[in-house]
Amino acid sequence: MAIRIAPSILNADHTKLQSEIARIAPTSDLLHLDVMDNVFVPNQTFSFDDCRKIIAESPIPVDSHLMIANPDRDAVLFAEMGSRSVTFHLEAASNPSETIKNIASNGSRVAIAIKPGTAFSAVEPYLGEIDMLLVMTVEPGFGGQSFMPEMMPKVELANEWRQANPERDLWIEVDGGISLETIEQAAQAGADTFVAGSAVFKSAEPAEMITRLRLAATNVQRR
Ligand code: DX5
Ligand code: ZN
């Protein structure tokens, strides 16, 4: 199983985003773009115009994580902007299947995210329709929070589903508190796509940190 590392630019220096992205791109698989509207979560980040520019200029594929109140209306815009992957929250969607179709028909991979309080059983009916499940390992809204190991049973259930449905090639992403201290337990549970914000951007050598995170996750899989 391939391991993917997706640095989150939420806690990068927003005054020099282009150079922040340029220095992590060579060792990253995806650029994780956190979009918050101050409604679904109590924080606001990039505007849609900012996102359009970031996606257009990114040297690597963009993984848009939409923490917005109306994904049924707006998620498709991120596919149209050229995100490689568009993730919306199950908790915010009124019509997940329709939103999945709209994103996919615009050429993006489709993912659903679940917050810590949302059970795996709530998202299970949609797993056959999507490309990736994002299991949040913190409450969405802010970087720099502590990893919640109690989310690992959901990752394990997703991994069991993947093993029972290999033709779907479901990716399992974790987001929140991923670092050299926590990535191994997430990999052990079955995650293959890892978002890391503070661990990367607070490091003196972000590109090197990404390589170390990838190695740690890969070593777990080899065991
Ligand atoms: C939180 C965001 C995360 C955040 C992760 O709501 O979805 O992507 O940037 O940051 P760290 O890795 O610092 O927990
Ligand atoms: Zn995120």
Summarize the SSE layout with pairings.
Blueprint lengths: L3 E4 L9 H8 L6 E6 L11 H10 L4 E6 L3 H10 L4 E5 L6 H10 L3 E6 L5 H4 L8 E5 L15 H13 L6 E5 L7 H7 L3 E4 L1 H4 L4 H17 L1
Helix pairs in contact: 3-4, 7-9
This protein binds D-xylitol-5-phosphate and zinc ion (ZN).
The site of D-xylitol-5-phosphate has 22 residues, from strand 2, strand 8 and helix 8.
Report on the structure:
This protein is α/β, with parallel strands linked by helices and 223 residues long. The chain has a single domain, classed as Aldolase class I (TIM Barrel). Helices cover 37% and strands 18% of the residues. Helix 7 links the parallel strand 7 and strand 8. Helix 3 packs parallel to helix 4. The longest helix is centred in the last third of the chain and has 17 residues. Bound molecules: D-xylitol-5-phosphate and zinc ion.
Task: Describe, in short, the structure shown.
With 223 residues, the protein is of the alpha/beta class.
Order of helices and strands: EHEHEHEHEHEHEHEHH
Strand content: 15-25%
Rg, nearest Å: 16 Å
What count of structural domains?
1
Give me the CATH fold name.
TIM Barrel
- Profile the largest sheet: 8 strands, parallel
* Assigned CATH architecture: Alpha-Beta Barrel
Would you identify the regions where 5 or more consecutive residues have pLDDT less than 50?
none
Q: In terms of structural class, how would the helical and strand content be classed?
A: alpha/beta
Instruction: Kindly report the spatial arrangement of strands forming the biggest sheet.
Output: 1-8-7-6-5-4-3-2
Q: Class in CATH?
A: Alpha Beta
Mean pLDDT: 97
Q: Tell me the total number of β-strands.
A: 8
Global shape: globular
Number of helices: 9
Helical proportion, percent range: 25-40%
End-to-end distance: 13 Å
CATH superfamily: Aldolase class I
Bound molecules: D-xylitol-5-phosphate, zinc ion
